[in-house]
Amino acid sequence: MINTLKTIMLLRMTVKTNSMISWLRRIPLVNKIITDDFYKYSGIKTLVTVVKWLREFASLFIWKALYLFIMYAISYAFGSYDFVTPGRAFLLMLLMFPIVGMCLNNKFLEPDEESYYAVFLLKMNARDYALSLYAFEMLKYFVGNLAMVSLAYVLLHSFDKFYASIPFYVYLGYLIYATTIKVIYSAIQMKVRSLRPADKKVNKLFSAVGVMITCAVVCVATLGNLIFADMFPSDGALKLIIACAAAVSALLMIPSLIYLINFKKYPRIYKTLLDPDAYVLKRNKTKENTQLKAAKQSLSIDKNAAAAGITSTKSGYAFFNDLFVKRHRKILIQPSLVEAGIAVAGTVILSILMLFIIPDLKKLLHSALLQFMPVFLFVMYALNSGKKTTEAMFINCDVAMLNYRFYRQPKTILKLFTDRLKYLTYVNVLPAIALATGLVIVFHISGGSGSILDYVVIFVSIIAMSVFFSTHNLVLYYVFQPYTADSKVKNPVYSAFHMGTYMASYFAMMYLRTSIIIFCSVMIVFSIIYVIVALFIAYRVAPKTFKLRK
Hints:
Blueprint: H1 2-25, H2 30-33, H3 42-59, H4 62-79, H5 86-104, H6 113-121, H7 126-159, H8 168-195, H9 201-226, H10 235-262, H11 266-273, H12 276-279, H13 287-307, H14 316-327, H15 329-332, H16 334-357, H17 361-371, H18 375-383, H19 386-401, H20 410-445, H21 452-480, H22 492-511, H23 516-545
Helix pairs in contact: 1-3, 1-7, 4-5, 5-8, 5-9, 5-10, 7-8, 8-10, 13-19, 14-20, 16-20, 17-20, 18-21, 18-22, 20-21, 20-23, 21-22, 21-23
């Protein structure tokens, strides 16, 4: 196993080093410095490798520290409303959140490019590869978490009175519990896979189960902290439950580990999980073959649409865009309708709770809306389907059409850009209107405001944020067009902008606290200015940049 792990680490660092060099070569101006000769210099490659190792080492601690900090911040926020003490809320999250990590952050049998290289190209033993890599990931997880929970214990025990009563054995129990249930869940996965090792639907099954478990845990933890705190165990009982959970899961891990070691069907499962076309671009795949494949996909869509009687009364490029929208309605507009329905349902449930069941909830929600409106910047980022829609536009339309010169003419690009922006704004404004209306209703029922301006800016700011994200995603797509013919992203600037948008929205949610009138007014003005500037940039730049990446 040690030799297998050494080979895995060598392969990993080689892949990541070459990927980093390739990424640097795609950055404008930098690509003039880093040429093909860059790969020949061993000293430079060694430097890049050292950087990657340092990043690997830093990842041991950074994400664990952020995870614990988020738990601390959420528990402290709950405690500030007098429903439950911060220390008790923290204990409840130490008990509940590992269940989410068990489903959504389990590194066992992850299908990726590295696994394809190891199992299929290097012909490594599938069982040895899977177990060696998983053991390494679990060791990283345990060591990183041990360092961070020890630091958290020292800091919280020394500087925060609410957490001083939590002994170290609770943190250690949480760590053992969080690590061992991952192994147990992995064994359950393999047992299910052993029954149908060639069935790709098993992946979807576990994804669905993970989402349902996550939703259940979030609901229980939230309701336990905010509404039914008196029905949950006391602080002392929660400490004991965490310790017992650690002991029980540690015992159950032993047969789970034995099962994973003795499992015989790793090669067959890897063959199912790793589709070669999904990870490796065949060297003999020519541009003509790619075009032919895209043309066949388009032809298939056309036949299905014709059979369903889908057509359009518009003409020119408006007809082209309208036909595309109607033929892909399921992946474009249905998610927005579902999000709008969830927003309406949430409004109804919260209204019933405040009016008839839990009147004390009014104070909490009113205070939250007055101080935490920046949270909805991240909510609107998450709800906006702009990035997914542009991906659908490329895969189902532009990947084939960009091979034709007439499709890349400035007038064509600008006309389609305008039509697509109208539709994208329409799609995303549906859940935005539902959410904005719901916020106004909840704000009014929870106590409201004496100024009608507060209601207006709440509603308009949500719509403005929706329009902002819709415009932002489409402009980035047209200005940076990041995709190659095989739908891979090859533009680091495009990815950097999306990451920057995510980080800005996230930090606004976590740290920005201001009044409704200030935040909403700023967002309305910012959105208007951004849309005007972005449209100007798109109209000037897109005709030069909207093309297939090599």
